[in-house]
Amino acid sequence: MIFSREYIGYLGRRAVKHLIDAKLITTSNLHTTEERVTAALIDEMSLEDRIHDEVRVILEAYSDEMRKSGAQYAEMFKKVKNELARKYKAVL
Fold this sequence. Notes:
Helix content is 76%, strand content 0%. It has five helices and no strands. It has helices at residues 5-21, 30-45, 47-61, 63-69, 73-87. α1 (5-21) crosses α2 (30-45) and α3 crosses α5 (73-87). The radius of gyration is 19 Å and the shape is rod-shaped. The mean pLDDT is 94.
């Protein structure tokens, strides 16, 4: 993840504050709302890390075939990553 969890927590708190100030949401429990928004942000921002891990597992399974065919790891990484991003409907 490119941002620390503390910074994402800050972003979550600020987002909730702005939504409340703009009267777009109301909440009876501010702390719970902030926690849920922060958890959603963390989940969304860690998606790319999960995709990278999955790409590495896939490419590891095909490492012998890639070596035999002369495929470049970086090229294959990018292709598989794009396919998985499409599969998960992720915007990276």
